[in-house]
Each structure stands twice: as C-alpha cells, then as structure tokens.
Amino acid sequence: MFLNIVIGFVIPWIFGIYLYKMAPKILLSIFSLGTVLSHIINAFADEHKMWHLLPDKYLSIDYLMFDIGLYAILPSYMIFFIYRYEQMNGYIFVLIFTVITTILEFFWFKIGRVTYHNGWSIYHTFFSYLIPYLLIFMYFKLLRKVKLY
Fold it and tell me: Do 126 and 98 touch, CB atoms closer than 8 A?
C-alpha cells in the first residue's frame, strides 16, 4: 500500500504542484476529468476482474491514489505539452503519453504489482489509456473552441 501511495499519489502531485505553478488553468480544468475517467475504467475492470492491483489489503485506497494522483496529473501534463507546442499535432502527444503510461504499467506488471485476468493483456492496457487520453484531448479542443484557452 505504501508504495502504491508514493508512486500513485505523492510523486505525481509533486509534479502536479509544479504544473500548477506553471499553468494553473490547465491543471484545474483537466485533472478532474482524468480522475473521473480513471475511476470509471478502474471500477469497470475491477467489476469484471480484468486486472488486480497488489497488495490486496487496502485496495480501494490504492486505486483511489492512482485515480486522483498519477491518472489525473499525466493527462494534465499531456494537455500542457499540447498547449505549449501547439504547432505540433496534438495526437502525437496523445500517442506519446499512451505509450509512456503503458510502459509504466508494463513495468508494474513485471514486478508483480498488478496482475491481469480474464484475457486482459498489455495490448488491452494500451487502449485503456489511449481512449481516455483521446477523450481528454477532445475536451481540451472543446475548451479552446469556447475560448477558455
């Protein structure tokens, strides 16, 4: 549990505070959507027993730490880079962040901190990150359209 809290919440929010100092509007407008999407996906996967985070003792707290930590901060940084380097195609950043997040989870899988079940694989994991990142990017484009950015 301690490692999940540090990796899933403490370290991401150290970077989150830094992002808040650089671009508060991005962090405040994006992290909540990242949290909600992460919670929906984790709840669905937990209900259908697709993956399991270890250790078991305080599982709901561990999932929550990742939902409000890592999976809230990473999309905020993705949007920060899309906004900062607007001359580049934003889908490139979506793909980069999807690959990075998938690699991080693959490492977590390899060291035995997450297990896959019911046919779930790292391939499925890639899409479980790609879809929320795409939704967040579309949300950002909508915010730009209504002149919030």
Answer: yes
Q: Which two tokens mark 98?
A: 């999807």
The full DSSP string for 45-99 is HHHTT-EEES-STTHHHHHHHHHHTHHHHHHHHHHHHHHHTTTS-HHHHHHHHHH
DSSP-assigned letter for residue 113: S
* CA separation for the pair 138, 12 (Å, rounded): 23
pLDDT mean across residues, the chain: 96
- What's the rounded mean pLDDT across residues 26-48? 96
pTM of the full predicted structure?
Answer: 0.95
Phi-psi region of 115 (alpha: psi -120 to 50; beta: other; left: phi over 0): beta
Tell me how far apart the terminal alpha carbons of the chain are, to the nearest angstrom.
38
- Say what the pLDDT of residue 55 is: 83
pLDDT surpasses 90 at 134:
yes
Which amino acid is it at 144?
R
Domain map (residue ranges) of the chain: 2-15+27-40+50-145
